């Protein structure tokens, strides 16, 4: 099989295209022929700063992907050869992620993809939608369903980003009133396309007043991408007993909380990352995303507020660079 690998940390030019032996499926494993691989910020950050570690001399990046089952090992019953699937956290603890023609994965990280869903959509689900799911379920429940958040108001910081887009779509599917913050008219249009009920440009006017005009008692939950610059706003607009779910650290690494403000509202601050998430929570996210997908509540593309940018496998370095530069939308690698 063809695969892109790196053997040391560094800029995108450490990535190289190689030929490797086709993997086989052991007990409880599935081999997937990848049609699309999704690129996320974690991919270039791992490549740039960490490099291979532990038992692996080289790494093929890529947590997200979609394709067709090539082979199944003993004990696998929920998918079979020829089935369309999407994969979850494909590079965690494994040398070969989804930037390869074939990847072998544990069966519980290989999920059926409906015929109505494109490979583009399947490859866009993993990291963004699972992160969004965990943010939306922090502090209260581990599962969502259509209508589960009816009566609640969710504030999504950075609604034009991939995780922000996913949070808008899932929160709306779960019945929440969705407010989102953006930094430009272009991003506002994308957030509206994703389904946000109210869009606030935080560089104009009074974001606090605009949010509280929609939710006078405060929002129930904030899905936060930039906790340091947004802390004062979050404290001001989150209701008593509300939750701020932090999934990234854009704008600063050190968050200093004014204790009285947080204590006075009985606020819950939760911090999340997928790569150490308990497997039961991973599976809860998979189940809910699959349900939303089956109901047609999950979309990608310009009309869904998430423009797609396609690259070939030989262009993975350019794809990484595009994500590192902060391209708006979802970067996908075509392998079919």
From TrEMBL:
Q: Name one Pfam family in it.
A: ADH_zinc_N
Q: Which superkingdom heads the taxonomic lineage of this protein's source? A: Bacteria
Which GO-annotated molecular functions does the record name? mRNA 3'-UTR binding; NADPH binding; quinone reductase (NADPH) activity
Cellular component aspect of the GO annotation: cytosol
Q: Which SMART domains match?
A: PKS_ER
Q: Which UniProt keywords apply?
A: NADP
Q: Which residues form the Enoyl reductase (ER) domain?
A: 10-333
Protein's name in the database? NADPH:quinone reductase-like Zn-dependent oxidoreductase
According to its UniProt entry, this protein's organism is Nocardia tenerifensis
